[in-house]
Structures are given as C-alpha cells and as structure tokens.
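=== RUN LOG ===
request id: a7f3
mode: sequence -> structure
chains: 1
length: 66
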Amino acid sequence: MAWPMIFLTLAFCGIAVLGVLAVRVGLEVRRLARAVGDGCERLARAAEDLERAATPTAARAGRTKR
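=== RESULT ===
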C-alpha cells in the first residue's frame, strides 16, 4: 500500500512543478510580447522621423538634377 501512495505523491509533485513552470513561461511570453510591441512602435516612429527628415533632402536632390 505504501508504493501507490509514494507514486501518487510523486505524480502530484511533478504536476505541481509543471504547473509552476507553465505559469512562469506564460508570464515571460507576456513580457516578451510587450517588449516586441514596444519595439515595433519605436521602429514605426523612427521610420516616420526618417521619412520626414529625408523629404526635404529628396526634394533638393530632385531640383538640382533638373
């Protein structure tokens, strides 16, 4: 009778450890998704700034060649 109780206890501990690890992975995935979203926003802002800065330069380049 002792062996089934030991196996049941080990199985419960194993499932508890897997549950804790699953929660930790879920939290890290949420943090990573937030970081990726912030990075995408920063890239979009940088692209807009670059486009705004390049517009007058492109206009000047077009005028000098003609």
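=== NOTES ===
The two ends are 95 Å apart (CA to CA).
DSSP finds one helix and no strands in the chain.
=== END ===
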